[in-house]
Amino acid sequence: MATYKAPLREYKFMLHELFGVEEVSTWPGLEDATPEIFDAVLEEAAKICEDVLFPINRSGDEEGCTFENGVVRTPKGFKEAYDAFREGGWTSLSAHPEYGGQGLPHVLSFLVEEMICSTNMSFGMYPGLTGGAYNAIAAHASDELKQKYLPKMASGEWSGTMNLTEPHCGTDLGLIRTKAVPVGDGTYKITGTKIFISAGEHDLTENIIHLVLAKLPDAPPGPRGISLFIVPKYLDGDGGPKRNSLACGSIEHKMGIKASSTCVMNFDEATGWLCGEAHKGLRAMFTMMNTARLGVGIQGLGVAETSYQSARAYAQDRLQGRALTGTKYPEKPADPILVHPDVRRMLLTMKSQVEGGRALAVWIGKEIDKSKHHPDPAEREAADDLVALITPIIKSFLTDMGSETCNTGMQVFGGHGYIREWGMEQLVRDARIAQIYEGTNGIQALDLVGRKMPMHMGRLLRRFFHPVDAYIKEASVKPELQEFILPVAKAFARLQQITGFIAQKGMSNPDEAGAAATEYLRFFALVAIGYLWTRMVEVSLPKVDGDDGLFYRGKIATARFFITRILPQTNAHAAAIMAGAKPVMEMEDAAF
Amino acid sequence: MKVLVAVKRVVDYNVKIRVKADKTGVETANVKFSMNPFDEIAVEQAVRLKEAGTATEVVVVSIGPAQAQETIRTALAMGADRGIHVQTDAEVQPLAVAKLLKAIVANENPTLVIVGKQAIDDDCSQTGQMLAALLGWSQGTFASKVDLKDGTVAVTREVDGGLETVDLKLPAIVTTDLRLNEPRYASLPNIMKAKKKPIDATTAEALGVDIASRLITLKVEEPAKRQGGKKVGSIAELVDKLKNEARVI
Prior knowledge:
The complex is a heterodimer.
Chain A: H1 8-18, H2 35-53, H3 57-63, E1 66-68, E2 71-73, H4 78-87, H5 106-140, H6 143-154, E3 158-163, E4 179-182, E5 188-198, E6 207-214, E7 227-232, E8 234-237, E9 240-243, E10 246-251, E11 262-274, H7 281-317, H8 341-373, H9 377-413, H10 415-418, H11 424-432, H12 441-452, H13 459-476, H14 482-508, H15 510-540, H16 549-566, H17 569-578, H18 582-585
Parallel strand pairs in A: 3-6
Antiparallel strand pairs in A: 1-2, 4-5, 5-11, 6-7, 7-11, 8-9, 10-11
Helix pairs in contact in A: 1-2, 2-5, 5-6, 5-7, 5-8, 7-8, 7-9, 7-11, 8-9, 8-15, 8-16, 9-11, 9-12, 9-13, 9-15, 12-15, 13-14, 14-15, 14-16, 14-17, 15-16, 15-17
Chain B: E1 2-7, E2 9-11, E3 33-35, H1 37-51, E4 57-64, H2 68-78, E5 82-87, H3 94-108, E6 112-116, H4 127-135, E7 138-148, E8 152-159, E9 162-169, E10 172-176, H5 188-194, E11 199-202, H6 204-207, H7 235-245
Parallel strand pairs in B: 1-4, 1-6, 4-5, 5-11, 6-10, 7-10
Antiparallel strand pairs in B: 2-3, 7-8, 8-9
Helix pairs in contact in B: 2-5, 3-4
């Protein structure tokens, strides 16, 4: 069995000690989100996740979803768990109060999502997709459509999906073939096939609201000719709901998240409504994608946390051999494997990146709230810029980290990690998809160097560079922080230099930017997390001798590990980037 | 009908208890606290009575440090109407708790008081009984079923031999056992609503109760470690060991 208890102490550290989250309750619209509410909500969410979602995680993986005659059944216990989750109001956490939501901050929602993904990533897909669809409708649909769909999606009675991918196109959505023909009464007939549709069909909710990308007859070719439609599974009929002409054709058999249904959806003149403006569907879809990308990053973080907790417990329990420097636990028949440098290296690699990654997520979560609620428009714009810049980094870095962490967790378990019983291999399989969907991590890196970096003449980058630069200046003169901040300062200077290098070379040859993108994103993430670890040290130092001294001493030791053993990875990334595109591009295609 | 429920903030049942190095008590720094599980059952029962229309108001009392307010909020999020916090940082033993509750009962005039049968920290299992004695009310302890009637309440008690049902005249005290109900999870909207529900703060002095400890804790120790078992060769050897080594027969 994997081990998991919601890391509530960590959350309090992040929210109250590191990021001063009480600030959000001073922003209009978030008055209710006081620190006590944060704690009360997290504590109750922890109970649901630990007691309801976690126990059906492994059974859900073993059983998977089943498909028969167009009907998808989720594994045993999922319907009951979903009902408990919905009745508890958890689907409405960050939905708007006017549609029955609680209007709570995104930063809080991030941590609740983390707990859901830690305990049952497959389960989290269903409310997660609904949240994405909700956001797209809220941002783009007419008032009438909002009134019709949002309340029931906020309450969780109805769920939502995103229908983008088709058999011949995923990343390049300009190629889609699904058609939408206007009927003349304001509705459209949608025809086409979509694949890889998460939660496309299931037995958890009474209706499923599909958001479908399709082309109108007069659509210009390419991505500028795509429109977004709302296509519900059930329509209003005389005397009750009427089945729309759409169906699930089959479900995929896949590596992980087996309790999440991944569907082929066939639309056969299904009735739909335009969401937003004609031909502007891709933009509307991006509203959903940005939230979804952050959500996928949180999935990586969530599974990594469970893997770390499990590996930690195993390393403390598993007695095997003796410490290299002589027996540490003479009263036991052997020492726990935690005494071994290499096991500690693995655990610290996990811990330093999970906690560092969480700091990045919580920081950006709070910035999302700032971008929506801060009274000063300049502050809102700055926050929005930072969120846009860091979104591909969160998606890509946290999911790569999640996958690597789960693999390391398996390694700590040795052979017991490879067999199913301990649940570690499930985490590896579940975590893997997060690097792929919602735009592969390669696409995220291109988003960073190709779109975010040049956007508004580098304005987005400055939203990160300026405050970090200011912090480095301030921290560098504090003797107690120097061992942490000086390596960060060095890496930060290098990051700026490399940014200039890529911007310049990428201008004349886009392949230069493309070849550097993945390493650049990683470099960026490591610097950001190094900066955040230094801030965590600053918060922890005065508290090392207090009641909770162990917690803070642990933070400082973890920071030291990160700065000395992980941050230097930037050197290798820098070397790879500076080698330019030639080593990647020179080989003839036929030689592969 | 008003129902009064007392709740205690205790070290969470998941926490592995460690004794302090100086043996004055158990380690409570940096330990997760939550509502005593038996008290959760008490709150649940009161809220169910309200949902059934039998009770009109559910008042929750907690005695303890400032953080005990969080425990009251948890009860409010489960559906209780308002809270009373008797703030004290001192150790409060069952007799003092019972006296404080008696004073609150005098102010509030509830028809039914529900408390957990014991708290999982000290396992005293005394407060409900002492309160009943101080008030001169009927008591139904270790309840696995509570059935309110007109002017009386039938309480099914878990006793050593099985179940015993007693009919009590109201007002009465009920202490809850594990099988009485399964406490709900607080829903998100109710957590939000709980924030706006009132909690009155008071103190032992204001209630005119002397809470000085009548018992002194000499020392707290971990239970002795279990020794490994032994294999015996014959029944005679077993009897001999039980008699002379273990000295249990």
